[in-house]
Design goal:
- The complex is a heterotrimer of chains A (about 325), B (about 575) and C (about 325).
- Chain A is built from 11 helices and 7 strands.
- Chain A has about 325 residues and is of the alpha+beta class.
- A 3-stranded antiparallel β-sheet of chain A has the order 1-2-5, with no helix packed on it. Chain A has a two-stranded antiparallel sheet with strand order 3-4. Chain A has a two-stranded antiparallel ribbon with strand order 6-7.
- Chain A starts with a helix and ends in a 5-residue tail after the last helix.
- Chain C has about 325 residues and is mainly alpha-helical.
- Chain C has a two-stranded antiparallel ribbon with strand order 1-2.
- Chain C is globular.
- Classes of the chains: A alpha+beta (about 325), B alpha+beta (about 575), C mainly alpha (about 325).
- Chains in contact: A-B, A-C, B-C.
- At the B-C interface, strand 15, helix 4 and helix 11 of B face helix 2, helix 4, helix 6, helix 10 and helix 11 of C.
């Protein structure tokens, strides 16, 4: 239950990301590169006050070139709610309101990256890509899987055999290499939003075959049930029968499968990003953000860059928990 | 020898280098200022190869890992001085060049032995150049460099230790190509036309499955074993022809190991763990390693201005598909405004962690060919850039983006490589600064290895790319001469048919000037005159900005404290290999 | 039974044909070509490009290239030529196959040896703190990208002053003859890849085992066995566990293709001499015959794995008979 709550919160955050984020995706603060997260304080001079942060100043070690930051204690920056900031559009509304912010300095609660971009803002906006890759991908692969699996199971005969052979062929190609091969096919000239679509398409192209096969099995088991025969007798055409009469009986199965398939997409996106084949700048995704942390200098000097990785783990775990719980509830041990 | 009367000795014996009677070993000295001290024989050094070599025959495949390996196995007739990057004797003890610059005579070192004990002679040199380097089917041969005006250069054996090279026309940079590695005729003859094989068969010689004893050179180390995908082991060549200042035979190390490690992070991990003794690193990795050194880690991180290494540049496509953009990009005022919007200092600080310097124009700032163009780089000034764009009539639109003359927003795609620690940050910084002057750059990330082919295809609007610097400008002619094969930002200047005459009608006046300068430089024999020609070219480059140079990275490397005489840089350039001087304390 | 096997094997042939054509087509779709990476080398003139294209047959249309390659396999057992390595594909793959198979088999074995007991344990004691911990770790393992886990493990070893941070051996032992020292050295290196590769598998298998076992423990025949007064231990091991494992056997067959494909990322991060990074490189370089051959082989492995799984199932479960 807690996991479902986490997922709900994550998706709400993703939906509201531009509003929740104090900055936009690309705003750079050249003097504050690799700034560690600021601490939010509520006590000043022994008294409880409105939460505030101290601005930070950067210094570069002349020998090692390591950046060090000191808090400027003389200038507390109170955190204000509902402040004006960059323009963004959310659900069709254009706005400049942001949930929180400070004036006269910067607020970076998760630190900044190599360009002084706010990691919190980037993670929030990046969640839109990471969390939708799965949903959109699953939707596409289910649409294909349901139609093809349904048709194949319903009609049987030569069509069924051909589809089954095709599915077998597709299932016999190992996932990751073909994923990489297809990802390298995405034209470089595409803008980053198309690349996103391309990656979703690639991920879902690989996902549908297994699903179609299982659905076919279920449809075969059901097509001769009485109510289906009855529906056919009333003169309903085949596709409506498959979609309206057979599929609803598979809905619990489909929901559980979908929930358990989602993490694969999130991890797949991060794997592609790790190899530089995933979503590209100026877009952001958790996988792309995690890529900045995939080295020893980051682990050693800028460990906060790992935060998007933690979010990947949390969201995947949450999906798995929820999926398992649903499966137990629906008593579908076979998945 | 009938030409001897006309021969003038141009090869200057360098300071500190004494050439006694024929047949002596080469004494390596004169590097005290670089901190080189007499070393101790023995020990072992482990270094890194970025991937498995694809062959053991240098001329069989273009492969940077094979190049990194080859420099330990083979020698050329000449090599670079570690300090001055000038050419000096290697397998050729001295040479003469005829007054007209067409006839080169090389006098070979006489007691050099192949690693299997066979003597090294003029036959090997003639064989290498005639049968391998000039074989157009040899995949990593260089037939093009020896074909001048459609005619082939001729190599002849004069006597056992003398080789004569006759060129159809003077080519002052030809000596640079004498760094190419000499191969053993007695091993490779069966793979060449002279030995009865087909021309392409040379590429099949010495595959990585070959018996290591078959692969022999004259170099400081010989191939001992290869474990596919994991390690190449080299052993000291006890008969190497170089000695240190004390007369100790080089190399000092008795074994050299090259671990095959693809992932840069895994390379760092192996270095930190002490399994790797030396590592070339990037500027981004410097602070972490340097801080570890500060904290007492047993290694030293060094940086040095280096000649080799690739300075990135920003190119605008003069022939962009969008005619409005093509017109804009061809306009010098645009490129000047863009140069003012390139924050070089920030890129040097944040991308290279300070480990870069202001760039030269086609020539590395430490090269003796360098002409000081720093003043022409201007300073980063967004307001001035904005004013310049205003003056061009590119008005700001209500959305903060300027308008092209046809009323469309001023935006272009900026193509960069995603799999690198350099391109994404430079692209991001540029995009951010351009946005502030009303220019929208849409980033387009591609794999770094496809950057150049994208440039050559002409299918881009702006591109970030880098070409390596070389010790002689002539070696980079195809890049910087308008109409050259790699002159990708203005492809309209290229010949209609390969090998044909450049398309002069497409050239802007300054491009024509640069073109002519290259033609002159390629045939001028006198060094001061050549220098003047290339100075003029660098000046025109800096003024007219065919591309906007961004920064020249410093070479950064790390070495464990147990080794001495570490000279940066350990690279892959034939004729530059300081490893024989490294010793284990 | 024999007829069943023969039929399945025969069916593989057209499937492999389709796969090879599909993969070949995908590789052809990639932008750029094998030669583009060399263009900035001063030695690479346009003539050289033409020469090499001719040498490799790249001047022919794609379908001709494909059919020639196919012909080579059928008539000569020749899987084509690696442009990158200048050598036949077969020998290149062969020299990497040893470690790849070794690692994969070890990983599969390790996964089963850890996952099955843990699955049984958590099924029997679902509420204890140990089970909770195991569950948590298994979920974590499934959710953590394997390349991240590998990197974190290296960082952990480094921070503790260790030297075994990647690869299968210390430099000294690479290519050395086998000895106790070498074996010890390998074992000291092996745990990182094993942990990084198998953690995900362990999590999945463990939970399946638990679910199946819980299922079986509630089944009628187990209740019957108990009612008969069979000792609890015998009921558990002879009836329940055995029947719960059966359906999982088919999973073992499905993990065969991981011989090649599933370790790509971990192999890159940990510098393992397996086929994975080789495949990735070939893909990026458009080394078409290597890519197609490797994918063909892993597809074949998957099919063979499926077949083996079906056979193993028939052997383990007397109710299943193939005609």
């Amino acid at each position: 239950m807690a996991s479902a709550g986490i997922l709900l919160v994550l998706y709400v955050i993703a939906a509201l990301a531009p509003f929740l984020a104090p900055y936009n995706l690309v705003e750079q603060h050249p003097d504050l590169t690799y700034q560690p997260p600021q601490r939010v304080r509520v006590v000043r001079d022994g008294r409880l006050v409105r939460p505030y942060v101290y601005p930070m100043t950067r210094k570069r070690d002349p020998v090692t070139f390591v950046l060090s930051f000191t808090e400027d204690m003389s200038r507390p920056l109170p955190i204000r709610l509902f402040v004006r900031g960059d323009r963004y559009s959310l659900l069709g509304l254009r706005s400049t309101w942001h949930l929180f912010g400070v004036s006269g300095g910067g607020i970076f609660l998760m630190g900044t990256d190599a360009f002084g971009r706010c990691l919190l803002s980037r993670t929030l906006v990046g969640s839109q890509v990471s969390l939708t890759v799965g949903v959109v991908g699953v939707a596409i692969s289910f649409a294909i899987g349901i139609v093809i699996g349904g048709v194949s199971g319903y009609y049987a005969g030569i069509l069924d055999t051909m589809i089954q052979r095709l599915i077998e062929v597709l299932l016999s190609i190992p996932r990751l290499p073909i994923l990489l091969a297809l990802a390298t096919v995405i034209p470089a000239s595409w803008p980053s939003s198309y690349v996103y679509v391309g990656i979703v398409a690639v991920l879902s192209l690989i996902g549908w075959a297994g699903l179609a096969r299982v659905i076919r099995g279920q449809v075969i088991a059901m097509r001769d049930l009485e109510y289906v025969t009855a529906a056919r007798a009333t003169g309903l055409r085949d596709l409506p029968i498959i979609l309206r009469h057979i599929m609803p009986n598979l809905s619990s199965y489909l929901i559980v499968t979908a929930t358990l398939a989602l993490p694969g997409y999130i991890l797949g996106e991060s794997a592609l990003s790790f190899l530089g084949l995933g979503v590209k700048e100026p877009m952001a995704s958790w996988g792309l953000l995690l890529r900045d942390a995939q080295n020893f200098r980051a682990l050693n000097l800028y460990p906060w860059l790992l935060a998007p990785g933690a979010l990947i783990v949390i969201s995947v775990m949450a999906f798995n928990f929820v999926g398992d719980a649903l499966r137990d509830a629906a008593d579908l041990q076979s998945i | 020898m009938r030409e001897i009367g006309r021969l003038v000795i141009l090869a200057v014996v360098l300071a500190g280098l004494v050439v006694p009677a024929f047949g002596a070993d080469k004494t390596v000295r004169g590097y005290e200022s670089l901190g080189i001290v007499p070393g101790k024989v023995g020990g072992r050094l482990t270094m890194v190869l970025g991937d498995s070599p694809q062959s053991f025959l240098y001329y069989g495949v273009i492969d940077s890992n094979l190049q990194a390996l080859s420099q330990h196995l083979y020698d050329g007739l000449v090599e670079y001085n570690y300090r001055t990057y000038e050419l000096e004797p290697a397998l050729a003890e001295r040479w003469t060049i005829s007054r007209d610059g067409r006839v080169y005579t090389f006098f070979l070192r006489q007691d050099v032995k192949w690693q299997d004990g066979q003597p090294f002679t003029a036959d090997d040199v003639v064989f290498t150049y005639d049968q391998i380097v000039q074989n157009p089917e040899a995949r990593a041969g260089d037939a093009g460099a020896f074909t001048i005006g459609g005619q082939r250069a001729k190599f002849e054996k004069v006597d056992t230790y003398t080789v004569r090279l006759t060129l159809p026309k003077a080519a002052p940079a030809m000596l640079q190509y004498m760094r190419l590695y000499i191969m053993p005729k007695h091993k490779l003859l069966p793979f060449t036309v002279e030995g009865g094989a087909r021309p392409a068969d040379i590429n099949t010689a010495w595959p990585t499955t070959v018996d290591p004893r078959e692969v022999i050179g004259t170099g400081p180390f010989r191939l001992q074993s290869y474990v596919p995908g994991q390690k190449v082991t080299l052993a000291r060549n006890p008969n190497y022809w170089k000695k240190d200042a004390n007369g100790t035979r080089l190399p000092y190390l008795s074994q050299l190991e090259l671990l095959i490690i693809r992932d840069p992070e895994q390379q760092v991990a192996q270095f930190l763990a002490g399994n790797v003794g030396q590592l070339n690193i990037s500027g981004a990795q410097f602070p972490d390693l340097r801080a570890r050194q500060q904290a007492g880690a047993p290694f030293k991180v060094t940086s040095a201005r280096a000649l080799f290494g690739s300075p990135p540049h920003l190119a605008f496509n003069f022939d962009a598909r969008n005619p409005e953009l093509a017109k804009l990009f061809s306009d010098l005022r645009w490129r000047q405004a863009m140069q003012m919007a390139v924050n070089r200092q920030r890129i040097i600080d944040d991308v290279y962690n300070g480990l870069a310097e202001l760039p030269g124009h086609g020539v590395a700032p430490i090269s003796s060919w360098y002409f000081d163009t720093k003043k022409l780089l201007g300073t980063f000034d967004l307001q001035a850039a904005a004013r310049a764009l205003d003056e061009m009539g590119l008005r700001m639109g209500p959305d903060g983006v300027r308008r092209l003359p046809n009323g469309q927003p001023l935006e272009f795609t900026l193509t960069y490589g995603t799999d690198s620690s350099v391109w994404p940050p430079i692209a991001t910084i540029l995009q951010n600064d351009l946005k502030q002057i009303g220019v929208r750059a849409n980033l387009q990330g591609i794999l770094s290895r496809t950057l150049l082919s994208t440039g050559l295809s002409g299918n881009y609007e702006a591109l970030l790319l880098a070409f390596g610097d070389q010790p002689d400008p002539e070696l980079r002619k195809p890049i910087w001469q308008p109409g050259g094969a790699l002159y990708y930002w203005h492809r309209a200047t290229q010949p209609a048919t390969p090998g044909g005459e450049a398309n002069f009608s497409a050239m802007q006046p300054w491009e024509r000037q640069i073109f002519d300068l290259w033609e002159t430089g390629g045939t001028t024999v006198s060094r001061p005159q050549r220098k003047a020609v290339y100075d003029r070219w660098q000046m025109l480059f800096a003024q007219n900005l065919p591309v906007i140079m961004i920064a020249k990275p410093t070479a950064v490397g790390a070495i464990h404290n147990r080794y001495g005489n570490y000279l940066y840089s350990l690279g892959v350039i034939p004729g530059y290999n300081p490893v024989p001087l490294i010793f284990q304390r | 039974m024999l007829w069943f096997v023969v039929r399945r094997v025969l069916l593989m042939v057209p499937a492999l044909l389709v796969i090879s054509a599909l993969v070949f087509a995908v590789v052809q779709l990639q932008p750029g070509g094998f030669l583009t990476q060399y263009l900035d080398d001063p030695r690479f003139s346009p003539e050289t490009v033409e020469t090499i294209k001719r040498q490799f047959g790249l001047d022919q249309p794609a379908h001709v290239q494909y059919l020639r390659w196919l012909q080579g396999i059928v008539t000569r057992g020749d899987f084509g030529y690696s442009f990158l390595n200048g050598r036949p594909v077969g020998s290149l793959i062969w020299e990497r196959v040893g470690w790849t198979v070794f690692l994969a088999l070890l990983t599969i074995a390790g996964t089963w040896l850890i996952a099955i007991p843990l699955g049984i344990y958590t099924a029997l004691r679902p509420r204890g703190p140990a089970a909770t911990l195991v569950n948590l770790i298994s979920y974590l393992g499934q959710a953590m990208p394997d390349f991240l886990l590998a990197l974190l493990l290296i960082a952990l070893v480094l921070s503790r002053g260790g030297t075994n941070v990647g690869g299968l051996f210390s430099p000294d032992y690479i290519g050395a003859p086998w000895s106790w020292g070498r074996l010890r050295d390998m074992l000291a290196h092996l745990w990182i890849p094993l942990a990084a590769i198998s953690l995900e598998g362990v999590a999945g298998l463990m939970r399946q085992m638990r679910a199946k076992l819980l299922d079986v423990l509630g089944a009628d025949y187990v209740r019957t066995a108990r009612a008969k007064g069979a000792p609890e231990r015998a009921v558990l091991w002879k009836h329940a566990v055995r029947n719960a494992i059966n359906p999982l056997i088919s999973l073992a067959g499905l993990s065969l293709p991981s011989l090649i494909s599933s370790t790509i990322l971990v192999s890159i991060v940990l510098n393992l001499p397996t086929i994975g990074p080789f495949l990735y490189d070939s893909l990026l370089n458009k080394d078409q015959y290597v890519v197609t051959t490797l994918l063909l082989i892993s597809s074949l492995l998957l099919m063979v794995g499926n077949l083996l799984a079906d056979l193993a199932l028939a052997w383990a479960d007397p109710r299943i008979r193939y005609q």
